[in-house]
Structure formats: C-alpha cells, structure tokens
Write a structure and sequence with these properties.
The chain is mainly β and about 220 residues long. It has one domain: Beta Barrel (Thrombin, subunit H), CATH 2.40.10. It has two helices and 14 strands; from the N terminus they run βββαβββββββββββα. It has a six-stranded antiparallel barrel with strand order 9-10-11-14-13-12. Strand 5 and strand 6 form a beta hairpin. The longest helix has 11 residues. The termini are far apart.
Length: about 220
C-alpha cells in the first residue's frame, strides 16, 4: 500500500530533465460534478501549496466540528503552524483549527456501500472518485515500532494523489464514513485501485483522545 504522500507532487517538464512525471496534469479521479450535499461542501477544505514555478503539492481536509478539521499527518507542511492542534502518533491523522465550517453528518461503512471520495487536483480543482466499499477493518502495518495496529475501510475507486485527508462519503446520504490515507494499485479493483481510509468513528475517537476539553479550538 502506498501512502498518498508526501501529498501529490506536480513535476513539470524541464529542459534536458528526465524527472518529469507528467506534463500538464497529475490529478487523480475526475473533475467534481458537485458535492453530494451542502453539508459535505461546507465541511470540505482544500489544501494546496505552490512550490516555486513548476512544483505544487496538494491534499484535502474535512471539518469535524465548526472549529476543528482533520487531514493526514503527512500533509502537515500544508497546515500553518499556528493552526496545528495535534498530530497522532499511531495513525496518519492531524487535527487543526479552522473557522466557521459546518460539520457533515457521519455514518458507518458497510460492504458494498456506494461511496464518493473527494480530493484536490493539480489545477487547484476539486476532484471526485466514485466506488464501493470492499472491506472493513483490513489490517494495515503499524506506522512505527510500538504503534498500534491500524485497521482500514477499503473502497475500490480511481482516486489517488490529492485525495489524502479527504472525505469518503455515502453516495446516497452524504454521510462521511472515512478519511482517505493511502492506496494500492490492483487491476481487479474498480478503477484499478484499492483505496484505504480510516473509519470516521476511529477518527472522532482519536480527536477526542488528543484534544482535551481544556484545549482551545480557536
């Protein structure tokens, strides 16, 4: 399995260079046709950073409360230092301050559930990828020695770079069921990729564990 990051890097053609991965567009998924509902739209947070003229990195985040959002920890350099609240050791999760976002509804993942994942493209545009949940509680190797074992919700979809930290939502209701953190290419999967996400219940539990009631959210 590959982490979707460091967040997707845009490497454009330079004279006499063989380092180019793409010339015009490195975006995964397809241009979004619009969010499932207004609450997902209001909770979604794009992350992007221009690196000089030819390079950029991008990812996504989602508000969990009106003032606290989550993304992948490997997106940490896309988050201003004064916004950072907490970084998880055990999971690829980072929590940061945001302002006046309406949190989405949350739901449970089920096998076969039709989902839509959202992320950012290299053109600073919202991307989406439709798919279906294919596994629950799949084992993922710990992030470090002594870290907890990780369990993932797996959904098959043509997502990838730029979707790191973005929400996975029920296609019918718009309830957020997970936060994308990695992928593995698999020709047998819908869209050719197996996408890995943290169950939203785990994300909320980790938020509550790391952010005590005394921690200011703004």
């Amino acid at each position: 399995m590959q982490r979707i990051g460091a967040p997707a890097r845009r490497v454009c053609l330079a004279a006499l260079s063989l380092l180019c991965l793409c010339v015009t567009d490195c975006s995964a998924g397809r241009p979004s046709q619009g969010f499932v509902n207004a609450r997902v739209m209001n909770a979604y947070i794009p992350l992007f950073q221009r690196r000089m003229l030819l390079f950029g990195i991008w990812g996504a985040a989602v508000a969990l409360t009106p003032n606290v959002a989550v993304t992948n920890d490997h997106n940490f350099y896309l988050i201003p230092a004064d916004r950072l609240i907490a970084r998880s050791r055990d999971y690829d999760l980072l929590f940061f301050r945001t302002e006046s976002h309406e949190p989405p509804e949350f739901g449970n993942a089920d096998i076969g559930e039709q989902v839509v994942a959202y992320g950012e493209g290299s053109g600073i545009d919202v991307r989406e990828a439709a798919g279906a949940v294919s596994a629950l509680n799949e084992f993922v190797a710990p992030r470090c020695e002594g870290c907890r074992d990780q369990r993932a919700v797996v959904y098959d979809a043509n997502a990838g770079e730029g979707f790191s930290g973005g929400p996975v939502v029920d296609a019918a209701t718009g309830a957020v069921i997970g936060i994308t953190f990695g992928f593995k290419d698999d020709k047998s999967a819908q869209g050719g990729r197996r996408m890995y996400a943290y169950d939203i219940a785990l994300v909320l539990e980790e938020m509550r564990r790391l952010i005590s009631p005394q921690t200011p959210s703004r």
